[in-house]
Amino acid sequence: MTIEKAAALRALHVPGKPLILPNAWDAASATAVREAGFPAVATGSAAVARVLGYEDGEATPVAEMLAAVSRVVRVVDVPVTADMERGYGLDPAELAGRLLETGAAGCNLEDSDPRTGELVDPDEQAAFLAAVRAAAGPALVVNARIDTYIVRDGGGRAEAVARARRYLEAGADCVYPIGLSAEDEIGALVGEVDGPVNILFKPGAPSLARLAELGVARVSYGHGLHRAAHAYAVGMIGAVSEGRSPYE
To answer: What domains can be seen in the chain, in order of their start residue?
Structure first.
């Protein structure tokens, strides 16, 4: 069943007709995503970590993160792709095996060290991705995050394109230059990368329609929806503490 769901998820990555993923953070939000008609569900590590009482950056014990993914998988009938940061210290075979045990059909894997924020050598990351691919076979859709746009002196588009090509050669299904939001830069990168590209939707990013025109194949929302939902809840709780109705 996981292989079929991975194949279905992989097929949704169509340049010009992007897969839209409003990232979920628990079973309830995943159910909401599915009920809204989305054909796949993605988790976001930062949001899940906060819900579980931890900070982002692999501070969540891996067993708790995987259990959270399992709960999301259990409540939806569509493929689930899990944000696994850089693997939580697991070797590639164990990471692939434990992720597949949750029923997930895909994963995000990033190329900076969550603890130091430093970029990982691209050859080292490519070897890591290749080992995950070898262990999982076609049962996982691997989204290789490229962090050059969010770290100091990341190297800009040239470095991002070089990493993207290397990761696709290593077996990644999609590349994710997180932090890239300038319309002209997105178009240029998509044009130079022979594979599906994932863009993070955030304030200031091009519209979904424009991202489609630029040839983007996947759009994620990261922890933005959870952050907004949490802020709304904080406001309601504040109203209660002040003796006001939270529903006004």
So the answer is: 2-223 (3.20.20.60)
